[in-house]
């Protein structure tokens, strides 16, 4: 795998992406979005997952994006969506060799949320591992829950973060920090499940049953897709593992989903029957 670091797509130091090029390419690309609750995290933490996808033949682009801070009122929603969208455009306009019609978006945790957002905006296939998606319903259920930020080791890898199970106080803080308020209308505007249309491409939604993100969010999102006649594939895993914490269990069905929806329209040459 060959890696190109810090390709700029904007003026801010966070507006950079890395490109991981496979030794043997299959012609398709993945935009792999890091998590971190929209307030921390870095593209460098996606190198393990990037290597797995590159090993399967995909060009993998891992963008950084500006991080939300409600205290200073900077980079609130939809800054992150806009940044990753710009990174996608820059990737398409780059000299990196891949088929521009074969791109999928993959992300875990808040990266899963952004994968859904980008998939909706650009009509791309999506893989969301533990994406925080149904924000308004969560906030409605937890109006009395005090919000609380947890301390995160900035050097910890993605597979070791948020692996201790449900934490409504932290989830609530993440949403408040992203949106900048608890106003129902503003939170609803940041809730991706309300923007599903028939233009969306299929989505693979993965979650654990007892983790940070309620497993019910998968069914809500799948139902929203079904109402718009968009295919949804879901996978619920036992326990409290979150996002890349279950990479080993999710990667095979993820690769199968990507192969189905990125290569399904390749013409297949059928062997003709011998003339009778």
Automatic annotation (TrEMBL):
Keywords: Hydrolase. It comes from the Bacteria. Residues 18-126 form the BD-FAE-like domain. The keyword Hydrolase applies. GO terms for molecular function: hydrolase activity. Transmembrane segments: none annotated. InterPro entries: AB_hydrolase_fold (IPR029058), BD-FAE-like_dom (IPR049492), GDXG_lipolytic_enzyme (IPR050300). This is Acetyl esterase/lipase. It comes from Allobranchiibius huperziae. The lineage of its organism: Bacteria, Bacillati, Actinomycetota, Actinomycetes, Micrococcales.
């Amino acid at each position: 795998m060959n890696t190109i670091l810090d390709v700029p797509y904007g003026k801010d130091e966070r507006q950079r992406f890395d490109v991981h090029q496979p030794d043997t390419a299959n012609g398709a690309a993945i935009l792999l979005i890091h998590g971190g609750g929209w307030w921390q995290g870095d593209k460098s933490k996606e190198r393990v997952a990037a290597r797995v996808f590159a090993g399967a033949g995909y060009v993998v682009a891992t963008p950084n994006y500006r991080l939300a801070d409600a205290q200073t009122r900077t980079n609130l929603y939809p800054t992150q969506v806009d940044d990753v969208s710009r990174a996608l455009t820059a990737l398409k306009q780059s000299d990196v060799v891949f088929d521009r019609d074969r791109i999928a978006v993959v992300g875990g945790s808040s990266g899963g949320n952004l994968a859904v957002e980008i998939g909706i905006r650009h009509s791309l296939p999506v893989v969301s591992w533990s994406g925080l998606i149904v924000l308004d319903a969560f906030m409605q259920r937890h109006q009395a829950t005090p919000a609380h930020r947890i301390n995160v080791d900035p050097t910890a890898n993605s597979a070791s973060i948020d692996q201790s199970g449900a934490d409504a106080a932290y989830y609530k803080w993440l949403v408040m920090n992203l949106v900048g308020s608890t106003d129902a209308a503003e939170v609803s505007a940041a809730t991706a499940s309300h923007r599903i249309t028939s233009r969306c491409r299929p989505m693979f939604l993965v979650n654990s049953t007892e983790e940070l993100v309620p497993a019910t969010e998968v069914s809500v999102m799948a139902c929203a897709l079904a109402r718009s006649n968009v295919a949804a594939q879901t996978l619920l895993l036992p326990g409290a593992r979150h996002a890349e914490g279950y990479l080993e269990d999710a990667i095979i069905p993820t690769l199968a989903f990507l192969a189905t929806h990125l290569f399904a329209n390749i013409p297949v040459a059928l062997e003709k029957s011998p003339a009778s």
